[in-house]
Amino acid sequence: MDESDFQAYEDEIQALEEEIRQLTEEYEDLRQESTFFSDEEILKSIKSFQGETKGQESLSDLKAQLESLETDLSFLMEFTGFHFTSHSKKTVEKTRNRMVQKHRLSGKCHSMPFQLEFQLLEMQDNEKVSAVVSDLSIIMESREDTNVSKFVSRTEERGDLLTFFRSLSTYAEWYEHRRRTFLHFK
């Protein structure tokens, strides 16, 4: 066996070990999330779900609702330019009136790919629920534009997701217009 075959096997072994590590982490995350819910909460959720499904007319009504939701989602994706490709959520802490979740989100806005990672702290006081974003991390190609990297840095400091999505939508839309215009003149 020559050196290149040996290296190929070593690379494959490392890739498999990495995949095993990732799957183990995902399994632990899911197991941890499931331990946050008591048996009573799980039973209550099951009963409420069963009560909701009893009120449904038929399978055809559910299919019609699903088609309607898919149409609405497609419209919103075309209207905003956002196409989310993945989302993961991990509950870090959960108490009676406080919950901290870590979110990872990736997608594209028009043709600009982005990734977000942030923590969401939800607190409940009586009937009022408040949410605070922290530890925001944004990864995106700056396209050699220093203004984009400055904007990303400011947004990460402030933890302002709404401003990020609004600004990214506008910037990406006009970036596409500029790109198409320059391609036209080439």
TrEMBL record:
InterPro entries listed in its UniProt record: CENP-P
Coiled coil as UniProt keyword: yes
One GO CC term on file: chromosome, centromeric region
Keywords, sorted A to Z: Coiled coil
GO BP annotation list: CENP-A containing chromatin assembly
Chain coiled-coil ranges: 6-79
Keyword Ribonucleoprotein set for record: no
Database matches in Pfam families: CENP-P (PF13096)
Protein name in the entry: CENPP protein
Organism whose genome encodes this protein: Chloropsis cyanopogon
